[in-house]
Amino acid sequence: MVPALAPEVAARLRRDPAGLVAAIVQQHDTGEVLMLAWMDEEALRRTVTTGRATYWSRSRREYWVKGATSGHHQYVRSVALDCDGDALLVKVEQVGAACHTGTRTCFTDVIFEEKDQ
Known about the structure:
Ubiquitin-like (UB roll); four-stranded mixed sheet; two-stranded antiparallel ribbon
């Protein structure tokens, strides 16, 4: 039997109406923000149990393990819950691109950047 998510952790999760919590994914050693994904309690349980980042796809309505089809794996180093319980910080060792477009990070379109004076 696979262990359930610790009750004290599950109790602190503040889910949206769909039962999801935002998961901010960051490269563990550089702090680079890689992507934003979604987890429910089961995705979080799978992530902490296997050490492989597992998310809920809102469009496909199914679980997906990052890298299972692309080979761009995320090996989880730590998971932290924010102070409100409505976001997770997942620190990973990213192998290959994090973004489905093939870029290292999903945050490539800069819409504001302060200019040096």
